């Protein structure tokens, strides 16, 4: 089962394979929160870890697809010897990377050894010509055309760099004694408490009801709802609905709320979906609102 590593009441997924499985097989998208090495100063394309919505976590645990891991508790205080061995491995890894990349700091990528040699020869000839020009008089000075070096032709040889990376985890990380397969067990351990009231149960019920119909769901706060409902992967489809969760099928709505939901859905090219949760029957009723012209 997929480990969901919980810290500060939030569940994170760190393994790329688990992230791909959640998206492709279980229609769980989450939200990426980590920065990428070459794009660290932006917030459009992010990387691992992926943080899950509480409703996604509850669904995965209840369907026995994942387990909750108390991440802070899984980190054991390392001994001096373990730290020294880890430091030695890091130094060996750095030396291995250097040995696999000779001359990387000296020559730009994309040049073969033959091209580098020709370039050095041209630079040497240019330096000798400049020295001869400076020592000779104005009558013997070479013209700029004679001293200019021919332009370097781009090399078709691909530049490759092999960086070995260890895939093993730290010796001082052990989650064997802090895994929880049920929400009740995680709540008793004090690492998870969702859902804890009627509204949270309603959100979990609505999320499951839409998910079981084959929908993908994402956060809908930007569009005035609790969820965005997609007919397929959000990377390929636009959302068809913005959904709002109601604690009861008979919850009252003011006329202003009805108008706001209808107009907002129309402006964003979506239908607004009102989802009423029946906590006794554990059922969801749906009602869509669309803005229409009059007369």
TrEMBL record:
Molecular function terms, GO-annotated: nucleic acid binding; tRNA-intron lyase activity
Biological process according to GO: tRNA-type intron splice site recognition and cleavage
Keyword Lyase: yes
Cross-referenced Pfam families: tRNA_int_endo, TSEN34_N
Domain of life: Eukaryota
Annotated EC: 4.6.1.16
Entry annotated with the keyword Cell division: no
Name the UniProt record assigns to this protein: tRNA-splicing endonuclease subunit Sen34
Source organism: Mycena pura
């Amino acid at each position: 089962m997929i480990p969901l590593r919980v810290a500060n009441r939030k569940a994170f997924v760190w393994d790329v394979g688990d992230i791909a499985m959640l998206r492709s097989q279980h229609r769980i998208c989450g939200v990426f929160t980590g920065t990428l090495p070459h794009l660290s100063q932006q917030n459009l394309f992010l990387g691992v870890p992926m943080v899950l919505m509480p409703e996604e976590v509850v669904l995965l645990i209840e369907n026995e697809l994942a387990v909750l891991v108390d991440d802070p508790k899984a980190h054991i205080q390392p001994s001096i010897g373990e730290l020294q061995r880890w430091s030695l491995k890091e130094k060996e890894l750095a030396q291995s990377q250097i040995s696999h990349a000779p001359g990387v700091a000296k020559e730009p990528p994309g040049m073969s050894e033959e091209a580098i040699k020709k370039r050095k020869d041209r630079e040497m000839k240019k330096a000798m010509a400049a020295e001869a020009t400076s020592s000779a008089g104005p009558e013997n000075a070479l013209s700029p055309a004679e001293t200019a070096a021919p332009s370097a032709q781009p090399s078709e040889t691909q530049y490759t760099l092999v960086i070995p990376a260890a895939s093993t985890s730290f010796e001082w990380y052990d989650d064997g004694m802090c895994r929880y397969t049920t929400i009740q067990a995680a709540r008793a351990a004090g690492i998870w408490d969702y859902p804890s009231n009627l509204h949270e149960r309603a959100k979990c019920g609505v999320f499951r009801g839409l998910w079981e119909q084959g929908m993908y769901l994402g956060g809908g706060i930007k569009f005035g709802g609790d969820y965005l409902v997609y007919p397929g992967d959000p990377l390929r489809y636009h959302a068809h609905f913005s959904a709002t969760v109601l604690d009861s099928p008979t919850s009252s709505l003011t006329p202003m709320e009805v108008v706001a939901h209808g107009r907002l859905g129309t402006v964003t090219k979506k239908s607004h979906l009102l989802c009423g949760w029946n906590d006794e029957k554990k059922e969801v009723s749906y009602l869509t609102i669309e803005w229409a012209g009059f007369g």
